[in-house]
Amino acid sequence: MSKLQGVKVKWYGHATVLVTTGKGTAILIDPWFEGNPAFPKTTPLPERVDLILCTHGHSDHVADAVAMSKKYGAPIIAMVELAAWLGRQGVKQSIGMNLGGSYVLSDVTVSLVDAKHSTGMDDKGEGRMLYGGVANGFVLEVEGGATLYHAGDTTVFGDMKLIGDLYHPQLAMLPIGGHYTMGPRLAAHAARLLNAAQVLPIHYGTFPVLTGTPAQLRQELTGSPIEVRGIKPGESIE
């Protein structure tokens, strides 16, 4: 059995990942393809998406949410304010939730957990930022498979230990770029609080200011059993 117990995680660059369970359920998180400098243009889009998750309203996390929802006929789960905005953009199945809530799709239970970050949607029609609720992360508990945690955009915070205690994620997808999120030093502390066996670094290298690297994260985790699974955009782990 694979390290993720039959679950496959494909990273498309930045914070965009596709989680596919052993039963074939496909969940796309923070879709950003068009205009994403980190997305390899030779990498095909997913063949199937059953559900889309958006951690917050910044354009580098929701830019393609509407298009992907229409393409695959997939509902979107997001914070209630962001979900309402996505509905106004044409998403037919926009599911608004809030911190602590859970949603079950086939063999996956999706739970909203805290994140420490700003959020808001760029209303290009009026040239102003709209209120998007609060940022969040997601925990995906796969029946018969691994439990995954996508932190979205965040810095480290003490209640990551609570997330670890409650959900016991085997894999944590953590931003490491710095500037807009935590960098490698804080991400290493987050990994320890979560007690995750593995970390998939995300949200780095897309722009010049996102200087954190997986090598730096590994250095910060020296002496820890936590495995850093640094991969290139377009590659997968399982």
Could you characterize the architecture of this molecule?
By secondary structure, the protein is α/β, with parallel strands linked by helices. It is 20% helix and 28% strand. The chain has one domain: Metallo-beta-lactamase, Chain A (4-Layer Sandwich), CATH 3.60.15. It is built from six helices and 16 strands. The strands form three sheets. The chain has a seven-stranded mixed sheet with strand order 6-5-4-3-2-1-16. Helix 3 links the parallel strand 5 and strand 6 (94-97).
CATH fold-level assignment: Metallo-beta-lactamase, Chain A
Q: Helix segment count?
A: 6
- Percent helix, as a range, is 10-25%
CATH class, please? Answer: Alpha Beta
Q: On the 0-100 scale, what is the average pLDDT?
A: 96
Q: Residue ranges: pLDDT <50 for 5 or more in a row? A: none
Number of domains: 1
Structural class: alpha/beta
Q: Please indicate the percent range of residues in DSSP E strands (runs of 2 or more).
A: 25-35%
**Distance N to C terminus:** 9 Å
Total beta-strand segments? 16
CATH architecture: 4-Layer Sandwich
What's the shape? Answer: globular
Outline:
The chain has 238 residues and is of the alpha/beta class. Helix content is 20%, strand content 28%. It has one domain: 4-Layer Sandwich (Metallo-beta-lactamase, Chain A).
Helices and strands in order:
Layout lengths: L7 E4 L5 E4 L5 E4 L21 E3 L5 H4 L2 H8 L3 E4 H9 L5 E4 L4 E4 L2 E7 L5 E4 L4 E4 L4 E7 L4 E4 L9 H8 L3 E5 L8 H11 L3 E5 L11 H7 L6 E2 L7 E2 L1
Parallel strand pairs: 3-4, 4-5, 5-6, 12-13, 13-14, 14-15
Antiparallel strand pairs: 1-2, 1-16, 2-3, 7-8, 8-11, 9-10, 11-12
Helix pairs in contact: 4-5, 5-6
